[in-house]
Amino acid sequence: MNHLRIPGAVVAVAAALAMIGCGKKEEPKPVAPAAAPAPAAPEVITVKIGSVAPLTGGIAHLGKDNENGVRLAIDEANAEGMKIGGKAVKFEVMSEDDQADPKVGNTVAQKLVDAKVAGVVGHLNSGTTIPASAIYNQAGIPMISGSATNPALTEQGFKTVFRVVGRDDQQGPAVANYLLTQKKPKVAAVIDDATAYGEGLANEVEKTLKAAGVQVLPREKGTDKTVDWKAVLTKIKAKKPDVVFYGGMDATGGPLLKQARELKIGSVFSFGDGACTDKMAELAGEAAEGLICSQAGIPVQAAGKRFLEGYKAKFNIDPILYSPFTYDAAKMLVAAMQKADSADPAKYLPALAALDYNGASGNVQFDAKGDRKDAEMTVFTLKGGKITPLAIIKGGKSLTLDEYAALMPPAPAPAAAPAAAPAPGK
Amino acid sequence: METLLQQIINGLTTGSVYAVVALGYTMVYGVIQLINFAHGEVVMIGAMVAFGVITGLAGSGLPASMIVAAGVLAAVPACMAIGYSLERVAYRPLRHAPRLAPLITAIGMSIILQHVALLIWGRNPLAFPQIIANPTVSIGLAEISAVQIAIILLSFLMMGGLSWFVYRTRFGIAMRATAENVQVAGLMGINADRVIAATFVIGAALGAVAGVMFGTYYGIAHYTMGFTLGLKAFSAAVLGGIGNLPGAMVGGLLLGLVEALGTGYIGDLTNLCQWPVVDAWLGERCADGAHFILFGSNYQDVFAFVMLILVLVFRPSGLLGERVSERA
Amino acid sequence: MKGRVLSRREVIGLVAIAAALLALPFVLASVGTAWVRITNFAVLFVLLSLGLNIVVGFAGLLDLGYIAFYAVGAYTYALLASPHFNVHLPFWVILPIGAGLACTAGVILGAPTLRLRGDYLAIVTLGFGEIVRIFMNNLSNPVNITNGPKGITLIDPFRIGDFSFSARSELFGLTFSGPIKYYYLLLVVLLCVIVINLRLQDSRIGRAWVAIREDEIAAKAAGINTRNIKLLAFAMGASFGGIAGGMFSAIQAFVSPESFILNESIMVLAMVVLGGMGNIWGVIAGALLLSFMPEVLRYSVEPMQKALFGRMLVDPEVLRMLIFGFALVLTMRFRPAGLWPETRHRREMSENRR
């Protein structure tokens, strides 16, 4: 009998809830979040730019690289002393860590919206970018990702969502076509790391290879933490593929390549942009020589000279992967604001959508979905411990570097040797 | 089937690394019935310290084996120190606390160690210098490298050495006595605190060696590497019967083998297109040499866990474990 | 809460708490809508912790794969209310289905593991949690069920007629943003779950759980059907997880397997243990604390360093995790039974343990 009373108490609470419900709600007015970028000083207005990437966890190094790209762009913009509506503008980077976790990604997205950032560069992973994009879109804040390559991002129909990096379904066919024309494989193996990125890219490569009549072996998978690939590789070895494609990052791709050579697999190996870094030479040693890999856009090493030198000078390390893209993304936000003469997202959004911009990663224009129009893809090989560009693929055509340079005089032409300084963008 | 020998070699190598890490879990558990969840992190620190030393000496012209030995010599004391402080700071004060309290401190220590490592060694995956020539030997159709042979031999050696230590030395007897009953061991003149601390230190030393093994074999170290490795090794320890040294070895090797063989063959076996009736039923999906694979290598970890669950369901204390009754 | 009529002071207290809870989202929104979202996730974690508390706290079965049930609930909702299969069922249909499926999963996990004890049970449940996640990640091939690692996008919000929980709406002259509406919904669900938990705790079943936790053999001897009672613990805990998962799916409008990693299970367990296993209010406190702490640190670490040292010495995100780690260690060091332990537990702590 004793505990029968408890619901009574609860009913009381519920009733209380219901009763005060109406009366109470008047007190706390939903105050419009003040204290934002309102003109604090009479002359200088502060404009906040958000930057989101995982800064802790397994791919924190790539996240930091993304953030650095944004910081460099904003520092340069501040140094230039831009004016909007006649007032001097100071840009400020709000950097957030989304831990590559969609839930945290949403929280920090809302935090940036609350802080009334004028625009966002991020996030890094497609898995966090896609859910967060809905929050930015609802708030009308433009978001440019420099690294989320999953096509679904821009298929949601959001007007404020852009990306400066090529989509998986642009990059995959590019590298696959290169393999088809240069290596003429009959049997191909495709491996991925079971992430949205790796699987997405591997699917596109497989599709292109199959369409060309290549026999593609059943997909093999690891995880984004796998370092032991021997079992998978042994299985593949027995089927004697001519080429092996791996969709994944360098931290897993390096051991994969190393172990493949230990098992004496002679196939041509080919990776996507996540594993198209100089790190491969360190991780796999001599085994990495001859690796074919692709990057969406113009590669770090071939990026604009101003970016490369600026990055090195500011952070004392070399850029890793996507920083030229996040750098361009931040610069484009700034350029669009300048063009529209406003930091109000609603006002500068049309300018951003129509922007024609020459940046560290080449010429950027957005199509109707917010994807990069006719994004360049670059195919590299690893030679002498460095990734060296082989060909640039533009508009479905494979161009040598010289042809590409001749074709687009204004864009930053990647030099033959990646370490050597490429022609400046402007 | 020409791949079978190769897959067995693959499995034995990974299994050996698991086994050495599992020894660390099982020793601690054997003595104080506590899962040292931070053990994976100790292994990570071992790999990181060795990385520093090996990179530093890489250009010195010393023979590769000496450089790796120097890496081990540096990693072992570093990890022992961490093992000792783990026990002092996180576990000793909680020895009489509810069972789950040390689990939470262990998680806390894991987070701390990981992020301290991040501060020291950075976010990038570290590439071990490729100093070892690592010649491979062909056995029939299979390839086995020098490092693989070294890892397998070393792990057996360590298991043997540890067993000798636990079963043949006075300190080992003290350890087993403490495991049996802390109070009674105390009455017999055993300093239980010292024994327990020593258990942690020895476990950490084994972890350091495992870290170096991992680093030189895979050529990579990262501040998050301890988690997955620790998880696998813990599974291995439980599989063999936690608290039992040969059990850790058996569990590790078995886990490694199941992963390799599961990855190697289950995909082909569950390819529905090779079965006559199903093939017809799937029709178009199987045309032109296409495949309809239910469980490919993407289920690698599932094979391992399913085996673990099956073993535990039929042998609730693991393969070699003794009957465990939970004392009230 | 003994069976007596509430005194005047207690009524006033309850009314004050209720008023505070009702006003909370508007206060938070004035600081930033992010805080309403953070609160919503915190409430979700309270739901999860209460569910896990049944298994771990009441019945004493260590479960390291609890997030699997959350995943089952989340994916059930996502698949039945999204363009993925082009099925759009209303939430009051899906939530019970999700809870039912999670409950079934709980029994499937519970049945073979009944003989296992302590740490063996921990590793099996951990394995189960990982298996569920790996299936979610890989069931896009050969037949696409879960859309694999890409996850499921554009999941429907909760909707009653034209009233959508995700959109902004005006009521009584007040603006209710999406997160605020979900907050009230979560509050109602939370209230129900708390009531169920309180009722369970003092029921025959609750006492049977405690009996099993304290001494299984004695419980059996006392005539308790330990098998069914243990299974019931798994099933009930799992259903709460399933409901929380469904709500997560709707609030987030996106699910992918990376939301259900082992770390999440560990985090929920940490909430239960830190707060005080077996004590409902302690568990709630633990869940709120561990949900809010990283977020509070997210906001405070950077300005704090700047104020103290004039510049950033340690990256805020690293410092945040370090502080979090130390908090776990120190709390357990000084309050090993949790911040707010169950009284019965507290008594037994003094003796026991070998």
Please tell me about this protein's structure.
The complex is a heterotrimer of chains A (426), B (328) and C (354). Chain A is of the alpha/beta class and 426 residues long. Chain A contains 13 helices and 17 strands. In chain A, strands 7, 8, 9, 10, 11, 12, 15, 16 and 17 form a 9-stranded mixed β-sheet that branches. A 6-stranded mixed β-sheet of chain A has the order 2-3-1-4-5-6, with helices on both faces. In chain A, strands 13-14 form a two-stranded antiparallel sheet. Chain B is 69% helix and 4% strand. A two-stranded antiparallel ribbon of chain B has the order 1-4. Chain C has a single domain, classed as ABC transporter involved in vitamin B12 uptake, BtuC. In chain C, 69% of the residues lie in helices and 4% in strands. Chain C contains 13 helices and 6 strands. The C terminus of chain C is likely disordered. Chains in contact: A-B, A-C, B-C. Chains A and C meet through helix 1, helix 3, helix 4 and helix 6 of A and helix 1, helix 2, helix 6, helix 11 and helix 12 of C.
Q: Structural class, from secondary structure content of chain A?
A: alpha/beta
Structural category of chain B = mainly alpha
Q: Count the E strands of chain A.
A: 17
Number of helices of chain A: 13
CATH architecture assignment of chain B = Orthogonal Bundle
Strand content of chain A: 15-25%
Query: Could you describe the largest sheet of chain B, including whether it forms a barrel?
Result: 2 strands, antiparallel
Write down the oligomeric state: heterotrimer
Content of β-strand of chain B? under 5%
What proportion of the residues of chain A is helical, as a percent range? 40-55%
The domain count of chain B comes to: 1
Tally of DSSP β-strands of chain B: 4
- Radius of gyration of chain B (CA) equals 22 Å
Biggest interface and which pair forms it?
A-C, 59 and 62 residues
Mean pLDDT of chain B: 88
- Provide the helix percentage of chain B: 55-70%
- Gross morphology of chain B: globular
Q: Can you identify the CATH class of chain B?
A: Mainly Alpha
Secondary-structure map with pairings?
The complex is a heterotrimer of chains A (426), B (328) and C (354).
Chain A: H1 5-24, E1 44-53, H2 60-80, E2 83-84, E3 87-97, H3 102-114, E4 119-121, H4 126-139, E5 143-145, E6 161-163, H5 168-183, E7 187-192, H6 196-211, E8 215-216, E9 220-221, H7 230-239, E10 243-247, H8 250-262, E11 268-271, H9 279-284, E12 292-296, H10 305-315, H11 323-340, H12 345-353, E13 356-359, E14 362-365, E15 377-383, E16 386-394, E17 397-399, H13 401-407
Parallel strand pairs in A: 1-3, 1-4, 4-5, 5-6, 7-8, 7-9, 7-10, 10-11, 11-12
Antiparallel strand pairs in A: 2-3, 12-15, 13-14, 15-16, 16-17
Helix pairs in contact in A: 2-10, 2-11, 3-4, 5-6, 11-12
Chain B: H1 4-32, H2 39-57, H3 64-91, H4 101-121, E1 126-127, E2 136-139, E3 142-145, H5 146-168, H6 170-180, H7 182-187, H8 192-218, E4 220-221, H9 225-240, H10 245-269, H11 276-282, H12 300-314
Antiparallel strand pairs in B: 1-4, 2-3
Chain C: H1 8-31, H2 33-58, H3 67-80, E1 81-82, E2 87-88, H4 91-110, H5 118-138, E3 159-160, E4 163-164, E5 169-171, E6 174-176, H6 178-201, H7 204-214, H8 216-221, H9 226-252, H10 262-275, H11 280-309, H12 316-334, H13 343-350
Antiparallel strand pairs in C: 1-2, 3-4, 5-6
Helix pairs in contact in C: 1-2, 1-6, 2-6, 2-9, 2-10, 2-11, 3-4, 3-5, 3-9, 4-9, 7-9, 10-11, 11-12
